[in-house]
Amino acid sequence: MLAYGISIVLYITSAQGLGATRSQMLFSSAPLLGILFAALILGEKITLFQQIALLLKIGSLFALFQDQHSHEHEYIAVANQQLHNHNDRPA
Which residues form a coiled coil (predicted)? Predict the structure, then answer.
């Protein structure tokens, strides 16, 4: 429960800083990192399909983080005024 909660907090923090797409790509790479750690620490064998998946994931992360915006975004503050009344209360 603690590890899952910490991972969600870290995911939300990264989504705010990196953006939703980039943080989701990093979050989805956790199983492949687990495979790497299992191979390095426990001596597990990495299958051909896992190797292909790892290469594809690394390539997609590299391509994703190479993309840079060439322009700045401008956000205009909008005041939202909703008309309402309180006549819907029962008598």
Answer: none
